[in-house]
Amino acid sequence: MPPIADSILILLLLTNFFILGTANLHSAIRGVALQGLLLGVLPFFVESQATVRLVLLVIATAAIKGVVIPGLLMKALRDVHIRHEVEPYLGFVPTLFLCAAGTALALLFADHLPLAAADRTGLFVPASLATLFSGFLGLTTRRKAISQVTGYLVLENGIYVFGLLLYQSMIVEVGVLLDLLVGIFVMGIVLNHIQREFSSLDTERLSRLRE
Amino acid sequence: MAVYLIIVPLIGALAAFLLPSDRPRPWIVAIVAVIHLALAAAVIANGDVGLASEWLRFDALGRLVLLIVSTLFCICALYCIGYLRLRAERPNRIFCTALLFFLAMTSLVALAQHLTILWVAMEATTLATAVLLYFNQNQRSLEATWKYLMIGSVGIALALLGTLFLAYGARLGIGEPTLLFRDLVKGAAHLPAPWVRTAFVFLLVGYGTKMGLAPLHTWKPDAYGEAPGVVGALLAGGMTTCAFLALLRVYRIADAAGQGGFARQLLVVFGLLSMATAAAFMVGQRDFKRLLAYSSVEHMGILVLGIGIGGAGIFAALLHTVNNALTKGVLFLAAGNIHRAFKSKRLEDVTGALRRLPISAGLFLAGFFAITGSPPFGPFVSELSVLTAAMDRHRYVVAALYLILLAVIFIGMGSTVLAVVQGVPPEDAEGRSFRESAFKTVPIIVSLALVVMMGVWIPGWILTLLHAAARLLGGS
Amino acid sequence: MSAILVIAGVSLCMISGLPSLVTRRASVVTTVLIVAGGVTGLIGAMLGLTGGTAGLLLPWHIPGGALAIRVDALSAFFLAPVFLLAGAGGLYADRYWPAARMRAGYVRAFFGLMAGALALVMCAANTILFLAAWEVVAVSSFFLIATEHEQAESRSAAWIYITASHVATLALFAIVVLLHGVTHTWAFVPLAAGTGAIPVGQALLCLAFIAFGIKAGLMPFHIWLPGAHAAAPSHVSAVMSGVGIKMGVYGLVRLLSLFDAVPSAFGTTLLLAGIASSILGVAFAIVQHDLKRLLAYHSIENIGIIVMGLGIGVVAQTHGQPLLAVLGYAGALLHVWNHGLFKALLFLSAGAAIHSAHTREIDRMGGLARRMPWTAAAFLIGAVAITGLPPLNGFVSEWLLYVAGFTSITGSPHGGPALILILVVPALALTGALALACFVKAFGTVFLGAPRSEAASDASEVPATMRAAMVPLVLGCAAIGLVPALFGPILGRAVHGAAPRLPMPATLAALLQPIQTSALVIAGIAIAAVLTLLAVTRRAATALTWDCGYAEPTARMQYTASSTARGVVGLFGWAMRPVIHAPRPFTLFPSAAAFESHVPDTVLDRALLPALRGARWVLGFARYFQHGRMQLYLLYLGVTLVALLAWSAR
Amino acid sequence: MTAVLQLLLVVLTAPLLLGVITRTKAFVAGRNGPPLLQAYYDLGKLLRKETVLSSTTTWVFLAGPAVAVVVPLLASLLLPLAGPHAPLAFTGDLILFVYLFALSRFFTTAAALDTGSAFEGMGVAREITFAALAEPALFFGLLALARISGSLSLSQLLTVDGTSWHKASAALVLIIASWFIVLLAENSRVPFDDPNTHLELTMIHEVMVLDHSGPAFGLILYGSALKLFVFSALIADVALPRTGNPLIDAAATLGAVLGIGVVIGLVESSMARLRLVRVPQLLIAASLVAGFAVVLVLR
Predict the structure, then answer these.
(1) At CB < 8 A and 24+ separation, what contacts does B27-32 make?
(2) B311 φ/ψ sector (left φ>0, alpha ψ -120 to 50, else beta)
């Protein structure tokens, strides 16, 4: 496990903080795009010999996670004329604290999971769990539908990180990509409808069904 | 031959999508459903194991789920003919296509022996149902769809991570990261415990969200409340059953890996918690479709409780899966009729349904008595069996809680259901247009008849199928 | 043979309603079917009582289930009244609820179903079959109570009924499963010696007290009973009250018969509960304005008497006084028959009165004896019987219990534990006196005096079939009352079935012989005297009632039922809290005003319903957890995940 | 033989008791009241009078008087008035004894309600309420006696011999006291009711028979006389020792009964009617006294 991978993972964690910390939807989406690119290049440093599959995977991941989906979100943001503040339920500082705590917990929890010799030095498991957690934070503390989508993306990235540990079994990234594609694709459609019906993406409007 | 179970619906979906006019589409759905049921019957009859491949083949569990889903879908499809005729003002292209796609994917779930395929199929059902939920295309249904989609996707993502954990555990224990059900079970002994436990937690939360176990059920009342009755039936009887199947597969692996005790603990907790939550929300529930949603939560709870009790509980849970699906069919379809006739699903507007639509309301009432475990209906047998299993395993506290919760749920559900069906209907001309045509009632009656059959005379082959499935899960 | 006849009767009853469901014209078919079913079953039961035990086993394809029928003395004893009342009720319904009336088919169908299932409960040898039949009875009775669900009153009655009954059913679930746990079979088999002493046995007994107590309408589980019996059609009330609540008694007796020794404490509990419900039941009955509610409360009283008898049996058996135990069981079981007969008779005749007077309000009837003499006579016989007066059947069973009470004081040693049984004597005395008060009031206000409403003065005698349905019941009351010794052997067998470990009681017939003699003497002389006096005064002149100088008495001046009951209400103020709406005249010439008073059921209206409302209010807080925001829902997901991960890492 | 003797005793001498009571009251009041046999004259006169029936009434109205006469006669057969054994004696006859009077109460009250008169309804209400309170007292007494004699038949129960007087004299005295109160209540004497008042509103028994006339009314008078006699005889039986010789015993019974009549007369002339609200208290007191007797014998 080359150290570069680890440093990329560190960067990944930092982007988590950035995405949760920024007050602006644009920069949040940019953060997601950055994460996508990081994940895109990550396989190079996991696998030593470059195969066609590797290249394809890198290109696909980088393109989808780093370009296509953020682009879609940007477009959605442009179409809907809403203020670009994130408007969280929970303030930024507490969110960041929670994120830090989550990361720490992830490190702790990862310790009791046995690893293969090859991966033992890596940060993969904790990074994956931490990213998952910050994805959850994004989903639960943000008001706008779009920022929830970004939260979901972060969560997916976390899963993807772990997926790389199972590079051998093709099935993994297929799963991830499929999930992302359909998930975000459908969400895009629904966002579109929401925009049409409610002329807003504020989920406050989306809490009429209740006891 | 088994592969046609997937291909036929897909072709049907394509046809439905390409067909220009709305009228004949419901018929396509119905025809495909009937063919599918026939195929399923054939598969189950001659014990066809499916493809040669290790990835797609039928075991007893798969056959059981296939049977449930195919039957329920056939009933719903026939009902759809009447329903979509009633809702002729809406375009039904997407709806019908999604229905058939849903059928294909559920069959795939039943067939899958590889955890990733299983997962992909579940994901696909999520999407199909999301489309179905949005049939009414109003703000409320949109909100419901949005919530369903978000929560469902998060859940399914967690399930994926859990699957990956299992694969990694396999890589450590067995040497290669297989996700083949058979290999995992065979090599389960070597799987490292922490990975199995963590994976089980993720998969439980993931598929539990799809099942709608409390506190992961939050999408259910909204979705069931806003969806057409027929979609509710398919969700409550079909999709949840598939999710339960996925959970069972995972449980089997955990059990084989020596984590059975841990898994059963979690399942018992989830089961009782779901029943308790359902009870709390049923008491004083003013919306009879949301009521059914909570009833579904309750019965998912009973299912996992049965598994969590283990032993004879597994058989009981599987039996209850069948009964629950069929009874939910009755309840949701009848509720759909009442909803359509009164143009409302709140108690404020809906009373005296027995007077306005005797058949549907009567069926609704019968469904209520069935689902709360009165003979001569199927759930009576299965709910009693769950209790028996609990007592045999000396889980007296669990048994006591189970009984008390059943009592509370009966009270809560009954007060709402009776308020709907009894009394004098409000005097308004609106909704009088609704007619209880054959298509809108006969399928429900058939479904009820099946429920009665399950309570009075369970056919031998179903019993053998159930026993085989239970044995597969290490039950008796 | 008997089993086959019984099962034939059951099936006939169950299917009897189907023709009426199909077409209105098939009402006669239904009647014929159910009467046939009743007769067949009755013959079967009688064979079972005189002959030996018979069984029947058919397969039933559900786990643990089997269609196992077993007609032993005990079952047969309980079956006989079921079939008798089923037939009588079916005949009565033919004109009481004619095809023209609303939901006729519905009523006939569920009535048949209920009666058949009821019989099935009494002869099921497989616990799951027992449970299933039990629940079928419960649900079909619910539909019958809710027949007129357009009225809020019967809606709530049906609702309370089905709720209570479902609680009972769940307790029964537990009983059945526990039984399976200790016997490892789904059949009723005797429990291992000493089961009564171990926790499982005690749990069984507690659950039995709840489940069967609720079904039997024992205080304080009686809450469902008055409303239900008032709301249901009269022939249904007759069956529900005459034999329906006996389901609970049967279950209790059957379960007790499986134990080798029941803890004495349980017997004492039964005794005290029985005393409470007999006294309070009749006390509440006295203050009712609704004829059917009144009768319903009397069911509570009589169940109390029966349970008292069972209590005597259990206590005496545990303290080794077989004679006393036999007396207790015999009294209880005979009272099961008697109550079935006279309560059904009362409900049918009351139904006839209600049918012609178009009201259930006692204070709006009156003077019906002149207009419907046969019904009046039937009701009078029922009233004398239920009051436990010689020479009718009620006296015989109560006499047995009295004798038991007295035997306990003469027979038991100094400070013997069985001395608690002497409580039976004052309890029965008070109950009997109050019951007399109640039925004098009821009979007097409904049938005697002057009509209190237009409808009552226009009332006319009911059709012949309805009267015919009462005949067998009258005959039954008279037979058991006048020649009780005849029934001694049957009773003995039943007692043996109920308490197999007691010596087969042979003395009952001998014991009852003198009662028989004196009953015949009393009946003969009294009837002779009345007839002579009637003959003497045949030509008597008639005039207005002498009202102490007031020459123009009107019907409104008569003493009302509630004022007749006032004295007793005063005595029971500690248990009953009457609600009185009295006008307060404040002007010199007060305008027209109305006085109204009623007594709510203390347990239901003052304790249970408020408690339920409170529980509902508390549960209301759960709503905040489902308050619409998806972020919160996702939070639940995350929290669950983290919590479970923490658990898994342990 | 004894049966006939006993029956004659009851049938013939019952009205005499009424005479004794009125004479006693007259004596105490210093008047020389009606002749001793006045009751017989009244009966004779009433039997000759014609009957007038209320137009609302049915056969129940006449069943009342008939039963009211038959019942005390039958009940008297259960008591050992002449000789050690009653004509009709069996285990548990004591219950029959009490319930016979319940039977008569049922029909007399029903007959009263048959007229539809407010006053008679009032009387019924009182009668049934007070009877409900008197019954337990009677049964407590019987319980105590059963414990003492160890038997369930009035014949042994009531023939209390010296030894048991020696054993349980206190209990027996209590029983007699409580039963005397019951007797006054059951036969509607002072202090519960005043048989010769004329304020309908205050009466219990008399107000129930306002509408009866002629032979029926005669039967009612005779019936109440019989009832009074039987109750007195019951108490007398407890008090008296038995010789076994029918004639002597019969004479003794008659003497004791007439003695009780004198006591009743004294009570009636020494105290006034209680207010109705006080009546239940007195009856409950009677029950408590008898209950205490039970406690004594169980001790």
Answers:
(1) B27/B81, B28/B96, B28/B100, B29/B77, B29/B80, B29/B96, B29/B99, B29/B100, B30/B77, B30/B78, B30/B80, B30/B81, B32/B8, B32/B77, B32/B100, B32/B103
(2) left
pTM for the model? 0.92
Give the closest residue to C118 by CA, choosing from C166, C74, C88, C85: C85
pLDDT at C269 over 90: yes
Give me the phi and psi of D45, to 5 degrees please: -65, -45
Pairing of strands C579-581, C596-598: antiparallel
Chain A residues with CB under 8 Å of B119 CB are 175
User: Where residue B162 falls among pLDDT bands split at 50, 70, 90?
Assistant: very high
pLDDT, tens only, C195-217 = 888 999 999 999 999 999 999 99
Helix residue spans in chain A (DSSP H): 3-21, 25-46, 52-61, 69-79, 92-111, 124-141, 145-165, 171-198
Backbone angle region of B47, left / alpha / beta, with phi > 0 → left and psi within -120 to 50 → alpha:
left
Q: What backbone phi and psi angles, to 5 degrees, belong to B383?
A: -65, -35
C499 with C258: CB under 8 angstroms? no
Interchain pair B164, A163: CB under 8 A: yes
Q: Which domain holds residue B8?
A: 4-472
Enclosing H/E stretch for D52: strand D52-54
* Residues sharing a CB contact under 8 Å with residue B281, sequence separation 6 or more, in sequence order: A211, B221, B290, B294, C622, C623, C626
Residues counted in chain A: 211
Instruction: Give the integer Cα–Cα distance in Å for B181 and B252.
Output: 9
Domains of chain C by residue range: 605-649
With CB atoms and an 8 Å threshold, state whether A209 touches B127. Answer: no
Chains C, D in contact, 3 or more Cβ pairs below 8 Å: yes
Dump pLDDT digits (tens) for A184-207.
666 777 777 777 777 777 777 777
D46 alpha carbon, distance to own chain's centre:
22
Q: Looking at beta carbons, which residues of chain C come within 8 Å of A112?
A: 649
**Residue whose C-alpha is closest to residue B214's, from C561, C479, C625:** C625
CB D204 within 8 A of CB D126: yes
Question: Does residue A70 have a cis bond before it (omega within 30 degrees)?
Answer: no
Task: Name every chain D residue with its beta carbon within 8 A of the beta carbon of C395.
Answer: 99
Is D205's pLDDT higher than 80? no
Option in C167, C622, C648 nearest B197 (CB): C648
Show residues of chain C in contact with A206, CB under 8 Å. 628, 630
Angle between helix C322-357 and helix C291-318 axes, rounded to 10 deg = 170
Q: Are the beta carbons of C449 and C366 closer than 8 angstroms? A: yes
Query: Which phi and psi angles does B114 have, rounded to 5°?
Result: -115, 130
Residues in chain B: 476
Distance separating alpha carbons of residues B97 and B102, to the nearest angstrom: 8
CB contact under 8 A, A203 and C631: yes
Is C12 in contact with C39 (CB distance < 8 Å)? no
Please state the ipTM of this predicted complex: 0.90
Q: CA nearest D64 in C: which residue?
A: C530
Structure tokens given for C392: 């009718």
Chain A residues touching C623 at Cβ < 8 A: 210-211
* Residue D20 structure tokens: 């004794």
The whole-angstrom separation of Cα B244 and Cα B274 is: 14
Q: How many CB atoms lie within 10 A of CB B187?
A: 20
Determine contact, residues D262/D112, Cβ cutoff 8 Å.
Answer: no
Q: Do the Cβ atoms of C630 and B201 come within 8 Å?
A: no
CB pairs under 8 A between C and D: 255
Cβ D4 vs Cβ D12: under 8 Å: no
